Structures are given as structure tokens and as C-alpha cells.
Amino acid sequence: QHITSNQGSQTIQTTPGRAPRSLTPTQRCFRIRLVPIPHRSKIAPRKASNPNPPVAIQTRPPPASLSPPLLPPSARAARRRRRRLLLAGAARERRAMETLMVDRVHSSLRLFMNRNAVFLCERLCAQFPAETNVQLLATCYLHNNQPYASYHILKGKKLPESRYLFAISCFRMNLLREAEETLCPVNEPNVEVPSGATGHYLLGLIYRYTGRVAAAAEQFTQALTLDPLLWAAYEELCILGVAEDANECFTEATALRLQQEQTSTSNLEKSNFVNENRVLSPNVSASLVDISPKHIKQLPANNTAEVPGYPHLRATALHVQNTVPSNVGQFDSPSPTVTQTSGIVPPPLFRNLHAYQNTTSGDAPAKPKVNAVNQPPRRKYLDEARLKKVTGRLFNPSGDSVPRRSARLSRDTPINSNSNISQFGGNGSDHSSGKLRVNSSTPSKLCSTAIRSVQVRKGKPRATENFDEGSRYEAVDEMWTDNIAATSSSLSIAEGRYFEQDKAERTLSQDSKMATGIKELLGLLRTLGEGYRLSCLFKCQEALEIYRKLPEPQFNTGWVLCQVGKAYFELVDYLEADHFFEFAHRLSPCTLEGMDIYSTVLYHLNEEMRLSYLAQELISVDRLSPQAWCAVGNCFALRKDHETALKNFQRAVQLDSRVAYAHTLCGHEYSALEDYENSVKFYRCALQVDERHYNAWYGLGVVYLRQEKFEFAEHHFRRAFQINPRSSVLMCYLGMALHALKRDEDALEMMEKAIFSDKKNPLPKYQKALILVGLQKYQEALDELERLREIAPHESSMYALMGKIYKQLNILDKAVFCFGVALDLKPPAADLAIIKSAMEKVHLPDELMEDDDL
């Protein structure tokens, strides 16, 4: 029967089974074949009776059974084993590929080839999408300055390392809230912070930049507790002003703890080496068993050495050198068991010189030579019965119960891989082959003794040698055998004791060196930490004394010299600050930290040319550093170009919004432009970055003082004074605010403190004289101004105030003289008109004079 159907250009033809009624449901299937229809031009003319004749096709009978034939159990088991082997081989290949790619990625990261690392790691994650590989890809993205890519691939990951990398990405993208939620999930309060000390440090930074100082200090303290050498955490505690004394942080207990950690780490590494060596030891023993003369020929040249005086003898090292260090392997390799050494052919017996001479002279009994053609090939191993026969004839010729030499040696000195007994081996059928195997760890004295005692026959073909030749050498030097056994045993025991003692001494030496190194490091950190803590507390004089205790190599570094320069800057000693900053910049021209403060020092010293040169150098080093643009801004500010200076300071803020000093400099420029609203805005931004940035508190106080909001001014000046209680400038401005609030007694007290704090600062002396004039204490004011003239003899405002006091005291000639000197010193334009007006009204009575601002 044929069933046909036309569909397009193809014909579907089916052939049912032969016995439809007796077929099973499975066998009732139809086998369908597609047969193409030939082109119309090639088809014969159709008949009218059958317009669509079927195309003849070949049919195939259905198979007798659709299920595969059953295999015997052994074949099925073999198939399963083959499948498992194939799967295991494929898995090994995949692991090898993954290991190679991971190694190449790490190598690229070490060599700072970040783009190559990203490319390879992307291929790695595409082939092996494990989360550890995704973490490696995120690390590559972070190294390549692509935190957004790392953020994208790590979002939603739950492993601790993934959470830490995701938090780093959020922190770099300024997504602080999301970074905090990743490190400390709200729904899981008991989850530990990932990455230990570094995780707590990152969480502390997040708390600090979000204004939670107490929580930030707690996290930094926790990080320092977990890792006492995490200097960044102690540095942040110093910046927050809550760091404890460095002598209490880097204590002897910390040194003991670090020493214990290092000891445990080294012991763990040693145990890993020992375990690796023990795993390799059975293989080494098996290789010892399988060594044959053929294998000896194939040994590398560095393992065989020609014996001096005997060119036909070669010393071959039996032991197999592995990659485990010698100081570990030679002590921890286990001794071979009896079953491991049972397959080793007994060592050849050394004949004495007399036996050899008798043999060569013909006194020895003659032995019929065996034709080399008829001799069967030598076997690699002897069977047990032949081995017993040979060993009995060689080592116990008298047949008594005296134990053979090899047994005595095995009882006296256990066979070990680090043993000093010379092991001589040969094939059971090849005693006179001229091959002598010697352990490379044999002492030279023992080797020389053995070599001097060995005499080997020459000139006899290998094919004629047999174990039966042992009957010609019945005279055995038992004295030499006993001596060599005793010497080997004593040397082994003595050397073992020596190695144990040497190992103990080395361990003690390493522990003592480690303890000394840890103490030295903690001592250095104590000095640096205490100096930095005192600098952050603005105890600059004490900090300078601490820094002077550093050794010369540590003191003459860029970081320490910049810290010393900052201390002098806070002490308003700009000349000394300039000296140390210049030294630091010359010593390390690529160090940018602290260069913004250095530019401010040059600004106060009016060093326009040097400031311009410094700005150009910093821009050439790194155009994307905020310190460079701060230096450029100070250069324009010194030229009174405040608008250009403001643009450069804003560029610094754009590059790094977490630099508080850049915000403060923007506020200063807005204040100089009398744009107090924007000035207050930038000062507050600086305080959001660093709440203890007293310069911002001072700037806010100056703005409110100019706006005559004296209560606000006094509040902000006092906050700045609480942060830096040793600044004479802050004391002076606080006294000015108190004087504006009519609290003259408190103002005078504050001025006295300012003068005592810095006797070279002329501003508090002048302000004190103004307060005394307001209190009508003219003589005291004149005395203070006379002391001020010794410090600053070219201040026009000082001479103008002296002229006013002389006018009040009715000493008109001195008053005119002082006003004239003030005009000669070219005062500012705002003061020039006031001084001229006062000079013109000297001879007028006080009732006719108007109030002025002198």
C-alpha cells in the first residue's frame, strides 16, 4: 500500500508495516521519507486516467525492535568507566584552562596591564561563570578605573568578597548609602562585615563622610584591633581627634600578638610542605625500587659523576630530588618499609685487594666461559628462590646463622631518604658492570673510604658475567664491612643529632629575629603615630620634638618633611615651613600630598615667581590632582585675580570632592568677592567633609563678623578655637567678636592669650590697643603700640591709631607727625581718605570732629 501527498515540491510517502493487526503500538509507527519531485520538463506526459502518478521510492522494513540490544553487565560497566574517564578528562582540561587563564589575569594585574587583564577575565567569566571569577573580573574593572562596570556585575551577589568589592564600587561612585547597606544589611543585623579590618575601615569612611563621627571612630578602632598594622585606620582616628596615645596602641602586647600570628603562619606553611613531601615519599620509594641499569644509563648527567681515579666507575644518586626545599625534605621524608625495599637487589660485595690480585694472577679456580650467544638475556628482577640462593652464597658462604651485612645495616640504621649510609645497588645479574650507585648525601670521607676499598675487574665482557662468579671471591673483608657499618651508624646518629640541634637553633634564631623586627616596626609606628596625632591635635611644638626623634633615613622622606612643614605652618612660622616644604619637594618631586599647603605658604610670603613655578611643576606631574589646581588658584589669588582663582579652586573640587581645603579656598575667594552667600555654602561643604577643619569655621566667623552678626561670629570663632586652641589668629578674631559684643574684659583676656601664644603676631597687639582706646586707657594703648612698632614698623594703621591717641592727649605735633607717616606708608584706598580727614581736623576741638573708624 502507498500513501502519497503533494506538499510544494516534495512528496511524502509512507509505508506501513507488514502485519498491521499483529503489530505492537510501538511497531505501528510509519517511516516517513521525503522524495523530491523532478522538474516538470523531465516528467513524461501525463495520462488522462491518472494525472498524478506516485513517484517510485525504495521502502525499508521497520526494525524488529526499536529498543537497543541489551549488553552484558561487564560491557555496560566498561562503557560506564569509559564515560567516567572521558568526563574526568574533560573536567581536567577545563580546570587546566581555567587555572591558566586565572594565572594570566593575575600576572597582567601585577604588571599593570589592566586592559589585558579585563579582556582575559571577560573570556574567563564567559567560559567559567563562577562567582569567584566574577570577583576577579570586578577587581580588574576597579584596577582599570571602571567602578560602574564592577557595580553592574556584582549587584545582588551574596559572598563576603563580592559584597566588599561591590561596596568599594559604590564608594567610588559616591553611592554611600548603598555601600553601607551592602556592608551592613538592615534585614540581617548579625551578618559580619566582609574582609575583616579593611571592611570595617571602609565602613568607617562611609560613616565619617555622612557625619556620624562616633560610629566612624568605632569602626576605625575595630579595624585597628583586627589589624594593628593598618596605619590608615589610625590616621583616620587622628583626623577625627579621637585617637589614643600611640604608645598605648602599638604596645608590647601588640608585638607579642603579631609574633604569635607570624609563628602560626610559618608553622602552617611548614606543615603544608611536610604534607606535600609525605605525599611524594611513596612515589620516591617506588622509583627507588624500579631503578635498573638501563634506567641508570638514562639518568641525567648531573646525577652521575665519575669517581676520581676510576674512570670506569660512576657514582649515581639513588634518591630522587623533588621540588620540596632541602631543609624540609631531608628531615620529614618517611623511611621506606620492608615491602618497599624488598624489591631492591642487594648491594654488590666489595672484594679486597688480595682477592683481586689472586684472581688476575690465575690462582683463582678456572671457570668455563659461557658463550654470549647462548646466554639468556639478564632479567631485571630475580625470582624469590634464586634471590635467596644468591644471597645465601654471597653473604653467608659458611652456612652459619650469622646475619648478612644488609640485615645488620637495616637493624642498626633504618633506611631513610636522608640517611648518610652509602647505598650501593646493582642488578642481580650484573655485579661487575662497572656501575656503582652512591647516595649523594654520603659524606665525602665515607665515599673516599669506600672508593679506596673497591677493586673491580676490567676487560671481561658483560656477556660472560654471571652470579656464579661469586664462588671465586670467598675471601671477604669482614673487618671493612664492620667498620663501614659502624661508621655509617655513628655518622647517621651524630648527624641526626646535629641536624636536630641545628634545626632548633635556626628556629630560635628565626623567632628572635622576627621578634626584633616586630619591635623595631612597632617602635617606628609609635614615633610616627604619636607625631601625627599631636599634629592633628595642633600641638605642633610637641609634634616637632617627636619627629626629631626619627632616624635620619626616615626623617628625610617626603611624608615626614611635609608633616614638619605643616606643623610650622600652623605655628605661623612661614619661613621654616617654606624651608621644609621645599626640601620635601626637591627630595620627592612627584609627591603631591601637602603641596596645597606649600602653595599657601608661598602665598603668605608673597613669593609670586616661586608659586607660579610650583604650580607649573605640579600640573606637569598630574593634571588630575586637586593639589595642583589649588596651587594654580593661589597663584592667581596672589595677583588679586579672584575670579580666575575661583575657577581653579572649583576645578580642584570637581576632581575630588572630598578635599576639604579646596572647598575652603573657594569660600575665601567668594568672601573676597563679597559674595557671602556662596562663601557660606562652600564653607559648609568643607565642614561636611571634615568637621574638624577649623579653617572653614574661621571663614564662617569672618563672614558673620563682616555682616555684623556678632553672635554668630563669636559662635563660629569659638568652635574653631576649640579645635585649634593654640592659634593666635583664632584667639585674636574671637577677641574681636567679644569686643564687638561689648565684652571688653573677655576680649582683653583673649588678646593677652593670643600675644602670649605668638609674640611675633602683630594683629593681637593692634587689637588690644584698640580695645584699650575704647576703654580710654590711652597710655597703655600707646605702650602696646610702641611694642608693636618694634615688630611691624611699616604698618600704616598703627601710626594712624597713634595719631588719634595723641590727638586725644592734646599732643598735636606728634599727632600730625604720626598721620604724616601713615600717609607716607601708602595705606589702602579705603583708609587713605580717613587718615587725610583726621589729619586736616587735628586742630579742631573734639566737639566738632565726626566719628571715624581709625
UniProtKB/TrEMBL annotation:
Subcellular location: Nucleus
Comp. bias intervals (Polar residues): 1-16, 413-424
Swiss-Prot/TrEMBL keywords: Nucleus, Repeat, TPR repeat
Region named Disordered: 1-25, 40-78, 358-442
GO cellular component: anaphase-promoting complex; cytoplasm
Pfam families: ANAPC3 (PF12895), TPR_1 (PF00515), TPR_2 (PF07719), TPR_8 (PF13181)
Name by which UniProt lists this protein: Cdc23 domain-containing protein
The organism of origin for this protein: Aegilops tauschii subsp. strangulata
